[in-house]
Write a structure and sequence with these properties.
The chain has three helices and six strands; from the N terminus they run αβαβββαββ. By secondary structure, it is α/β, with parallel strands linked by helices. The protein has one domain: OB fold (Dihydrolipoamide Acetyltransferase, E2P) (Beta Barrel), CATH 2.40.50.200. 20% of the residues are buried.
Length: 110
Amino acid sequence: MKKLLITLCLLACTFSTLADGQGKSVTVKQAKSLHDDSRVTLTGKITARANDDDKYWLEDSTGRIKVDIDDDDWEDENVAIGKTVRVTGDTDKDDDDHIEIDVDHIRVVE
């Protein structure tokens, strides 16, 4: 009985950890109000490249936010511009309280 209980606890911890890695699904508006380093998943359209290297604009029905997508996170940046994508990453708040998303994973959903 003890082994079963320990096994169930380990499984619960494993699933909790995996779920946390995905990030909480939020809108752009919600992401902008979160604390620095919050793990999030957003779905929206990559509308254009921002002025900075590796930075793009992601828009949903609630607004737009800058996302930082390293070249190695996708094969061809031109594939995603104009497409709907799902990104997972961490919020990155600067000293002026501007928030962007530091993307770890990106997937085209359209």
